[in-house]
Amino acid sequence: MKKEWFFDRFCGMQIVAYAEDGKIIEVGAERELPSLAIGNIYKGRVANVVAGMQAAFIACGLEKNCYLPLEEGAAVFSTYDGQLEERPRLSLKEGDEVLVQIVKLPRGNKGAKVTCDLSIVGKNLIYLPKTNFLGISRKITDPHMRETLLKEAEKLRADREGFIVRTAAQTATKRHLKTESEYLRRVYRAAVEQAVPAPVGTALYREYELPVKVMRDSLGGVGKIYVGDAELYEKVLRLVRLRSDFSEKNVILHRGARTMLTEYGLAEQIYALTDPHVELAGGGDLVIDRTEAMTVIDVNTGKYTGESDLESTVFETNLLAAKEIARQVRLRNIGGIVAVDFIDMAEEEHRQAVEAALAEALSEDRAKCRVLPMSELCVTLFTRKRTANEVTSFMLKPCPHCTRQGYVYSDIFIAMRLRAEIAECFAAGYQNVIVELNRGVMEEILRNRYLTAEAEGVWCGKRVYMIPHHSYPEEQYTVRGDNNPVLTLPNNAQILY
Question: Tell me: domain 3-32+209-269, CATH 3.40.50.2000, correct?
Answer without folding.
Answer: no
